[in-house]
Amino acid sequence: MNALSTADTLNFRSDNVATVCPEILRALDAANHGPAASYGDDAHSQALNRIYSELFETAVTVFPVSTGTAANALGLAASVRSYGAVFCHEEAHIHTAEGAATEAFTGGAKLLPLPGAQFRLHPDGLRTALARVQRGVRNRAQPDVVSITQASEYGTVYPLDDIAEIGALAHGAGLKVHMDGARFANALATLGCSAAAMTWQRGVDILSFGATKNGAMNTEAIVVFDETLVEPLSYRLRRAGQTWSKMRFAAVQLTAYVEGGLYLRMARHANALAARLARELAALPGIELVAPVEANLIFLSMPPAVITMLAAEGVLFARRDQNVIRLVTRFDGREEEIDRLLAIARRAVARTAGQT
Amino acid sequence: MNALSTADTLNFRSDNVATVCPEILRALDAANHGPAASYGDDAHSQALNRIYSELFETAVTVFPVSTGTAANALGLAASVRSYGAVFCHEEAHIHTAEGAATEAFTGGAKLLPLPGAQFRLHPDGLRTALARVQRGVRNRAQPDVVSITQASEYGTVYPLDDIAEIGALAHGAGLKVHMDGARFANALATLGCSAAAMTWQRGVDILSFGATKNGAMNTEAIVVFDETLVEPLSYRLRRAGQTWSKMRFAAVQLTAYVEGGLYLRMARHANALAARLARELAALPGIELVAPVEANLIFLSMPPAVITMLAAEGVLFARRDQNVIRLVTRFDGREEEIDRLLAIARRAVARTAGQT
Amino acid sequence: MNALSTADTLNFRSDNVATVCPEILRALDAANHGPAASYGDDAHSQALNRIYSELFETAVTVFPVSTGTAANALGLAASVRSYGAVFCHEEAHIHTAEGAATEAFTGGAKLLPLPGAQFRLHPDGLRTALARVQRGVRNRAQPDVVSITQASEYGTVYPLDDIAEIGALAHGAGLKVHMDGARFANALATLGCSAAAMTWQRGVDILSFGATKNGAMNTEAIVVFDETLVEPLSYRLRRAGQTWSKMRFAAVQLTAYVEGGLYLRMARHANALAARLARELAALPGIELVAPVEANLIFLSMPPAVITMLAAEGVLFARRDQNVIRLVTRFDGREEEIDRLLAIARRAVARTAGQT
Amino acid sequence: MNALSTADTLNFRSDNVATVCPEILRALDAANHGPAASYGDDAHSQALNRIYSELFETAVTVFPVSTGTAANALGLAASVRSYGAVFCHEEAHIHTAEGAATEAFTGGAKLLPLPGAQFRLHPDGLRTALARVQRGVRNRAQPDVVSITQASEYGTVYPLDDIAEIGALAHGAGLKVHMDGARFANALATLGCSAAAMTWQRGVDILSFGATKNGAMNTEAIVVFDETLVEPLSYRLRRAGQTWSKMRFAAVQLTAYVEGGLYLRMARHANALAARLARELAALPGIELVAPVEANLIFLSMPPAVITMLAAEGVLFARRDQNVIRLVTRFDGREEEIDRLLAIARRAVARTAGQT
User: Fold this and answer.
1) Start and end of every Aromatic amino acid beta-eliminating lyase/threonine aldolase domain (chains A, B, C, D) (predicted)?
2) Between D82 and D1, whose confidence is greater?
3) Does domain B3-18+267-350 have CATH number 3.90.550.10?
4) Considering the domain A3-18+268-355 in this protein, what is its CATH number?
5) Contact: C238, A142; criterion CB under 8 Å
6) What's the pLDDT tens digit per position in B262-309?
7) Side-chain half-sphere of A28: how many Cα atoms within 13 Å?
8) A83 and chain D: CB distance < 8 Å anywhere?
9) Where in chain D are all domains bearing CATH 3.40.640.10?
10) Chains with 3 or more CB pairs closer than 8 angstroms to C?
11) Which of A85, A279, B185, D328 would you call most buried, defined as having the most Cβ atoms within 10 angstroms of its Cβ?
């Protein structure tokens, strides 16, 4: 068996290396009795809209999909004209790490990347960009949507006021607002507000509601607040091969995931592990946080020699740079793993210090 | 709770109303320990190619995907030029019931439907069609692939000789051969040959290997025999949102599905239920088979009054016509359900006979 | 120099082998003075909408494009959802001879071919097809448009009542009506009605207004009656590379083409040549018309030996079959060419008769 | 008549406001005799490859197209996988001013913009970018082509050594080289080398050969050096509606355009006008060149008050900024127009100086 999958590996590479939470496995088991109508006509699937409408305190339509890339690209495809464009942060996952899925599913719409500190669009940056849009000019891609990632790819979280301002700017210019919520729960746990307060009450029209990273089994959801997007999206999903025939097994996951606030409890745990890990690592000489830790992602600068030693000890992480690594904590992470990682890091720092 | 999903409904509408087989649920549970590398780099996923290469007695590459539509449309997209075309039966699922997914994923390739008795392409029909191809004529879509469905949408099964002849014709004309195997196991159980004999040994280059209808949880596979298709397909799948991050949960399903011949046992059961049901229904006055029953699909003609009574008794099925219905049996179907359906049908026939 | 282009060849292969009419060349010359705003902002282009609105007796928007394929595929792309579909005749040029341009520009919409005598959709055929549409079924391509070709690919002309009935059926079902008018002028000359009467007054929403075959220099127009299509079409044209920078040279062609009814005079001439040629050929023993000659296309059956002799004498035509050829007459055709062709045909028939 | 098109307007807005050169109009007239085979099978079209192969001193295939956007986007579409990517300058026309045509025609390939002084890619910049490419990573768009614009959108010209270095870097990394030559002749006139030396001898695989801006009538060409691109391109052009039926009228333009070096004489004239205009304007107080003038584009900074006065006097130009305008000279520009513009500018500068 491959070293990457042994249970005692210190795997901080991503939250998608996680297991599935037991509540979801139990829900799958419980749903596995007798025939059920396919493609979402079963009772479990029919209940989803109601359950999520309660969660979001407004009428929503929920479409389970198999991946975050599908959620983002198809949600955007339903929101943008094929000759349209999407404003996003220049480090947005949709722009840098989804294989141009949005360009493909939209039929060639353009992503218009904007800068912004800590991987967040700043309302002022969006305002400037909107002011420069050449509306009606036929050889310019026409912006139809602004996409933000909450929590961001840098582990930072948009303050509610920023979302509201972005929402108001977008709507004022005739654009829709898309939220990539691959780590929605982690951001929501940090802000401590309601799901409504972080989305439609601040102007979000359509949401990629992440669940896989935080405990589900390869199941995400698109949550649609703007009902005009529902019909086009439903057709696009089916032809994209994103409408499961045995839909009940997606529906019960998404139901179990939010029932009794499970998703928030799991996210809080991951966030707390990250907070502790970041705090203790940053206290070591030569190690510094390069981004605020507001969710379950940690970006740290440290001497290359320390990075090398961590890797040599079998710690798995993503290297971003000569000096920078990313560590990700998980809903199923254990304090004991943090302890072990800290011990390794302390030894590495000590040894490196000895070397210089 | 919706009537469609109660466990004692006589549901013969499709095999996608089925449950998940217990072996697969157990495999999911067993795989759910500790972190595992994502996107197919885990040990379970890495083993898939080996396991399926053994099953198919040749080196294959396996890509798990979430639906049959994704398997077909993306497999075809990797096999056809965007200005190319796909020969298929005029009743092929890819042509009639996938929302033009193939046209979308290929960038506008054309499906060229051909007639053929019992929903099967006949080698002679393909020969004629190939002879009429206007190779090199720039305003004609250029055929690149022949797609056949095994078992067909009519529940019929291609004889091995027909597959071989279609394969030879296609390859002789520079086309690849795609097999839509949504009900691959049912066809294989009928023919009683090896998986190799029904595919690459007869010329199949790429296969949509169905698993969901026959016991898996929303997991299908693309099995690639022609290795030149592997790289383009891998990129297309990722950008289509069809590459799961927690891939192990797809891999273990596909492993459990074939382990010890499970998939064939399940298919044989469904086929046997269909054979019995078809035989006993066709023995009733006024009811006739309109297609040979070679897998788990049954097409029957019967008086509209009988159809109405079946529906009134809560039997679920697909109506194809004034006089024609389709019944589908499942891996998890029970003899007792067949008994109940037969009893209802006998009463309906008796009552209708009394009416005339 | 290639035999195909010598001026005295008897070229009946297509009307696109024609010259450009002198009035259009003069207009190009006249427009060639001083700088002019680009992309349609010049005075000539600005006048087009007015001139064609007068011609069509209603407010229209005109977009010059470079080919009929562009006119059809982009006009349809602006009229159909990417997951939509287009009803057309099974022999429609858009379906058989445009390299799947419509599938490509629409992002994968489906053409739904219907049968119909003499290459025309019959209103009853459309009625039946519309009745079978599975509205709202997510895995079925959703019809958005009906496309008819006037004159048809068989040289037949839709009666006004048929257009009106097709228009009413389409609109009643929420579909738009597209007319491929590659030979618009020939049909209009035959019917003798107004351009308005053959289009929007009978329900046509968008028209590919052919000009190249009938005297223009590689310039066609999309005439839009349904103003909701104007904006999306304008963007699609620009990104398709179909918006000329020196637009005046397209605009003055389209202006000269219709000025004083020039286009109708040219079409009447071509039609008259076809009528005479058809009449005299069909009078010969063994030669029969296989379609009524209602425009400038003639489909004839004749003994293969006669066909061979025509070809041997250097006559250029399109062979459709063992026994069937197509002859096309042109706006710049001369009676003397008809005389020569008839003489050759008479000799061929006489010789063949002698052979048997 | 609109002020924009009067012959005595001082129109420096773009070179696409120009007329058609008389040699081309005469060639159109001369070609207008008798029928000719369509879609490029006529003698004039058949001669094109030979004529351009002589011009480029190697075997090339030439495809006439209607616009520069079509030339670029379709040439790139034939060169890139749908999941591929194109390196280009961040100010490249294909990225900023073609309505995402490349994204559309490629099926969603990504443009990867790079910085570079004076709107030119620098070989070092490309080297760095190539080093960062994540080959084989499935969620990263895979670069297949580098596109450079010669002359650039800033009127600068790539030195031959830079083209060669870019070509070598690209080929070394498995990428093709595309040249957007909307102002090919202007660059060639500046460098004074052969067409071969500026293209395939330095690594260019496919070229958008501009002709419209420099005297042709809405006719550009794609010149293909890499013969593997010929077949896919030919199909893509036809389905894009970019293959004219009366092809002879494009072919004779492209023949006349280069015959006896006409295109270079016209470009030299435009360049000389630009050089004089730039020199004399930059000599005025407060006016400065912001880019070197190496072709027929001039970018100048000047006080906003001067810009306002130029506009008030009816001079047409493109404003880029508060302080920056672009002036473009044309093959059909006259010294007298330069005189008048200079006189207006001198008055404006004098008056503005008086104001401060």
Assistant:
1) 11-300
2) D82
3) no
4) 3.90.1150.10
5) no
6) 999 999 999 999 999 999 999 999 999 999 999 999 999 999 999 999
7) 27
8) yes
9) 22-262
10) A, B, D
11) B185
pLDDT score, position B5: 42
Residue matched to tokens 């609105």 = C53
Delimiting residues of CATH 3.90.1150.10 domain(s) in chain B = 3-18+267-350
**Helices B335-355 and B262-282, packing angle to 10 deg:** 20
Chain C segment 206-235 residues within 8 A of D by beta carbon are 212-213, 217-218, 235
Give the Cα separation of C209 and C61 in Å (integer): 12
Question: Which residue of D110, D132, D142 is the best one to mutate when testing the A interface, meaning the one whose CB has the most A CBs within 10 A?
Answer: D110
What is the pLDDT averaged over residues D308-312?
97
Structure tokens at A226: 């703007």
Cα separation, B283 vs B11, whole angstroms: 22
Question: Which residues neighbour B343 within 8 Å (Cβ) at sequence distance 6 or greater?
Answer: none
SS3 labels along D91-159 = CCHHHHCCCCHHHHHHCCCEEEEECCHHHCCCHHHHHHHHHHCCCCCCCCCEEEEEEEECCCCCCCCCC
Domain C22-262, architecture per CATH:
3-Layer(aba) Sandwich (3.40)
Set of chain A residues whose Cβ sits within 8 Å of the Cβ of C108 = 239
pTM, whole model, 2 decimals? 0.96
Burial classification of residue A286, based on how many CB atoms lie within 10 Å of its CB (0-12 exposed, 13-18 middle, 19 or more buried): middle
pLDDT of B149-172, one tens digit each? 999 999 999 999 999 999 999 999
- Interchain CB contact of B305 with C (< 8 Å): no
A350 touches chain D (CB under 8 A): no
Residue with tokens 């001013």: D97
Tokens of D138: 């499935």
Residues A179/A150, Cβ–Cβ less than 8 Å = yes
> Which residues in A lie closer than 8 A to residue B43 (C-beta atoms)?
1-2, 4-5
Of A97, A107, A141, the CB nearest to D99: A141
Tell me the nearest-neighbour CA distance from D128 into chain A, angstroms.
15
Look over chain C and give the mean of its residue pLDDT values, rounded to a whole number.
Answer: 96
Checking phi first, is residue B314 left (phi over 0); if not, alpha (psi -120 to 50) or beta?
left
Alpha helices, H only, D259-326 = 262-282, 304-312
Per residue in D200-238, pLDDT (tens digit) is: 999 999 999 999 999 999 999 999 999 999 999 999 999
CA D88 to chain centroid, in Å, comes to 14
- pLDDT at position D1 over 60: no
Predicted ipTM?
Answer: 0.96
Q: Which of C99, C140, C141 sits opposite B139 (nearest CB)?
A: C99
Side chain identity, residue C73: A
Cβ contact C99–B138 (<8 Å): yes
Q: Residue A69 in contact with residue A218, Cβ under 8 Å?
A: no
Which residues of chain B neighbour C138 with C-beta distances below 8 Å?
Answer: 99
* Res. C355 pLDDT band, cuts 50 70 90: low
Q: How far apart are the first and last CA of chain D?
A: 39
Q: In degrees, to the nearest 5, what angle opens at C-alpha A346 toward C-alphas A343 and A350? A: 140
C153 contacts: CB under 8 Å, gap ≥ 6: C89, C91, C92, C93, C119, C297
Rounded distance between C-alpha atoms, residue D205 and residue B2, angstroms: 63
Run of H or E residues at C324: strand C324-328
Which segments of chain C belong to CATH 3.90.1150.10?
A: 3-18+267-355
